[in-house]
Amino acid sequence: MLRAKRTSGFTIIELLIVVAVITIIAIMAIPKYQSSKLSANELSAIVTLKAIQQAQSQVQSSGSIDTDGDGAPEFAYLAELTGAMPARVSAGGAPAAGIAGVSEINPPVLAATVGFIQNSIVTKSGYMFQVFLPTGAVAGAVAAIPEDPNGGKVLPPFPDSDAGEVYWCAYAWPIAARKTGTPVFFVNQEGELFESPNRGVGAYQGLAVAPPFDAAFTLPGDMSSPVAGLVGGIANDGNIWVTVK
What are phi and psi of 206, to 5 degrees? Predict the structure, then answer.
C-alpha cells in the first residue's frame, strides 16, 4: 500500500512545540536581560556623576562664575555647566541671573545631554540627577537649594557666593527602584563617589521620592558636615553609604 507523501512545512502540533520552546527560551532570557539593563543604567549613572564632578572642577578652575566679584570662583548647576542656561553673574557684588546669549559658559564643560532640566532634575538612562548648591550658613549649618525647575538660576533665592566657592553635591537615583536601577549614588566637592543600597520601603525613586540634599551627610540640614561614608555610621537619611568600588 502506497503512503501519501508528506507536504512541506510543520504540522499544527509541531508548530505548537516550536512556539512553546521559543517561549520558554524567552522567559529564561528575560531575567538576564533585565539584570544587564539594570547594570548598564547603574554604570551610566556612575559615569555621569564622574563627568559632573570633573565639570565642576573645570568650571571652578576657569573662574566662569564669581557672583560676589571677589576673585574666588564658584560651582555651577547642571544647566550652567552644559551651557543650556546663562551662568549666574555679579550685580554690585551680589548674585544675579545671567543674560541669555551673553552669560553662558562657553565652551560648555558638560555634555548637552545632561542639561535638559525638568522639575530641577535631569533624566538619563533610567536614572535621575540633581545638583545642589549651598545657601549661607545659619548657626553653623549650610543648607542647599536646587536649580530652577527649568534649569540654572534666574530667580532668587540664589546660592551663597562664599559657600558656593566651597560646596556642591549631586545625587543619582532610579526612576523606578529595582526596575530601572537599584542603588542611589552621591558625589560632592571631595570627588569621591558613594552609593547606598536603596532597598525596601521608602527607596528613592522618581520625582515622588527623591533624596533630599542632606541625605548622605552626617548632620541634618548641613552639607558642610562630613559625608557619612567618610566617617562610617548611619547617614542623615538613616542609610549606610559606602565608596563606589
Answer: 60, -165
Domain-embedded: residue 218: yes
Number of other residues whose CB lies within 10 A of the CB of residue 123: 16
Q: How many angstroms separate the CA atoms of 111 and 125, rounded? A: 14
Q: How many domains does the chain have?
A: 1
Distance CA 175, CA 189 (A): 25
Residue type, 85: M
The three cell numbers locating residue 158: 540664589
Phi-psi region of 140 (alpha: psi -120 to 50; beta: other; left: phi over 0): left
pLDDT digits (tens, 9 = 90+) for 87-98: 999 999 999 999
Range of the domain at 234: 13-61+115-243
Residue 239: inside a domain: yes
* Most distant pair of Cα atoms in the chain: their distance: 108
Q: Quote the pTM value.
A: 0.86
Per-residue pLDDT tens over the stretch 210-221: 999 999 999 999
